[in-house]
Amino acid sequence: MTRTATPGLPLPLVRRGKVREVYQLDADLLLLVASDRISAFDVIMREPVPDKGIVLTQLSAWWFQQLADVAPSHFVTSNTDDIIARHRGLEPHRLDLAGRTMLVKRTEPVRFECVVRGYLAGSAWAEYRTDGTLAGEPLPEGLVESGPLAEPIFSPATKAESGHDENVTFATMSQALGTELANRLRAVSLELYHAGRQLAAKAGIIVADTKFEFGIDDRGRLLLIDEILTPDSSRFWPEDEYQPGAAQPSFDKQPVRDYLAGLRDEGIWNGQAPPPPLPAEVVESTAQRYRHIYQRLTGQPLEAT
Asked: What does the domain layout of the chain look like in residue ranges?
């Protein structure tokens, strides 16, 4: 069963993003519900990807617990029984919430994406190919697409509710947030990336890059929020197929991107909403990649609990 929305919840809706709805449970807690919606090129597709929201929620919950010693997070629980016990009015919506819902502490989000790149891919490769830089900082000549960087690089971006996030320099981030907070965000992000990369390597997975989000709670603590090391926020490559010098196979929405890019190159789609319909095989291929990365990283079957 797929979910593109969770109508009728007896809670105030705080916001609705491309993938998640955020509800207010009480003054201190929020409910994050991850749908099966998928977007590409900043356009939300009509077709949901089965189990996508469950993968995003359960994988984030797993990572929050695995990396709790590295950075505290807003995570409270993703267990549906525990969530409903806190608000009995949610019982009629159990099937809508099961597996895809996370109870979290309320924070004031930091308005920057904290991106860490260990390999030269995506927009980082595009910037390097054009300007020889990454996040505005010069890189050595002769690097190749998907090649490893000498050291992981912190590459912040502006956080957009809709539309495309924009890469910015660390100096821009420091000017907006202050040097102390910017330095903390960079240090914690790099530490999280190193720890996550080591855990993923045990499963034969390369974390090419990822983005973290942070918030500040009412006690002034910096907390890791939203999602962490999921197929929506990261590039996961199979280590046994890795060949630098070209784009890599990845466990994410690449089948959707590739299909749409083909239509765009052929002039069939202009890259704007409304999107073209996705073939069933593209949707299923994407769903399989999401399920596979969850099972491979965690070593557990995907369950809606």
From this structure: 13-106, 109-241
The domain covering 109-241 belongs, at the CATH homologous superfamily level, to: ATP-grasp fold, B domain (3.30.470.20)
Whether the per-residue pLDDT at 7 is higher than 80: the answer is no
In contact, 236 and 207? CB cutoff 8 Å:
yes
* Whether the Cβ atoms of residue 38 and residue 287 lie closer than 8 Å to each other: no
Residue pointed to by tokens 């009509």: 46
Interval 59-80: pLDDT, tens: 999 999 999 999 999 999 999 9
Q: What is the CATH number of domain 13-106?
A: 3.30.200.20
DSSP 136: T
CA pair distance 286, 273, nearest whole angstrom: 21
Answer whether 27's CB lies under 8 Å from 73's CB: no
pLDDT, tens only, 99-131:
999 999 999 999 999 999 999 999 999 999 999
Q: Which of 47, 38, 51 is nearest to 280 (CA)?
A: 47
Q: What is this structure's pTM?
A: 0.94
The first and second tokens of residue 67, run together, are 């990396």
Question: Please, which residues have CB within 8 angstroms of residue 269's CB and are 6 or more apart in sequence?
Answer: 260, 263, 275, 276
When mean pLDDT is compared across 4-8, 155-159, 294-298, the lowest value belongs to: 4-8
Q: What are phi and psi of 210, to 5 degrees?
A: -160, 165
